[in-house]
Amino acid sequence: MIQIVSNPLEWQRQINAHRKSGWSIGFVPTMGALHAGHISLMHRSKKENDITCASIFVNPAQFDNSEDLDTYPSNCPSTREADIAALKRAGVDMLLYPETGSMYPDNYQYRVLEQELSQKYCGKFRPGHFDGVLTVVLKLLNLTHADHAYFGEKDWQQLVLIRRMAEAFFLETEIVPCPTVREASGLALSSRNARLSPKDQETAPWLYKTLISDISLAEMRTSLEDKGFEVEYIEEFNDRAWGKRLLAAVMLGKVRLIDNVERN
Ligand code: PAF
């Protein structure tokens, strides 16, 4: 049985009651259109906590482009049903499924601004994106007060920003990074992959193959452009806690893909 709650304050009340019973709480925030990558986070939470909670909220504040928001795959009733069925199969106990207005009673007048890392890499190409991500994640973490919250490593920059925000605001929830789940071809699973044309689905795995190849960053860019990708960036990033990664974002047709790999 999964319990679905739409009112954030009711969610907070119910979670508080569970915590008072002494149960540990794991939390997996998502924007729906769930795939095996999301489900791996649910399984990890199930292993490490007494109760696993998830949220599905397509957060308008993190979309810098209204077409991207309108075409985001979660925005249709059949996806909603498939998502709930997948969460039930994964054994998730509680789901927060709020209306937009209920998450932004302040009309987004209050927001979290990070001044440095959020302006680089993806932030350079998506102004305001990480303000929206950090703001909604802070709201969700405050509503849930989980012991652990699980985030995929595919969104590496997001993950680092969330962990640093949790440190900066003394949040008690531990931010747990979880490995990227890939198709056999190497393509990182993403809700956006569903929007790739059949031809682009064949091309897309080249992104990962290129990132793990033993060539210079300039050669990687050329190799991707030759295959038809429009490269936003390929750059190294060094986090004091989690080490060096190679991060990339590309457009393939109208679909934006990101990926990252460990760098020695
Ligand atoms: O990675 C996502 O799905 C979203 O950015 C998140 C963390 C759920 C915030 O809306």
Question: How would you characterize the overall build of this protein?
Answer:
By secondary structure, the protein is α/β, with parallel strands linked by helices. It has 2 domains: 176 residues, 3-Layer(aba) Sandwich (Rossmann fold); 69 residues, Pantoate--beta-alanine Ligase, Chain: A,domain 2 (2-Layer Sandwich), CATH 3.30.1300. Helices cover 39% and strands 21% of the residues. The chain contains 11 helices and 9 strands. It has a 6-stranded parallel sheet with strand order 1-4-3-2-5-6, with helices on both faces. The chain has a 3-stranded antiparallel sheet with strand order 7-8-9. A hairpin with a 2-residue loop joins strand 8 and strand 9. The chain is globular, with a radius of gyration of 18 Å. The mean pLDDT is 96. It binds pantoate (PAF). The site of pantoate has 10 residues, from strand 2 and helix 7.
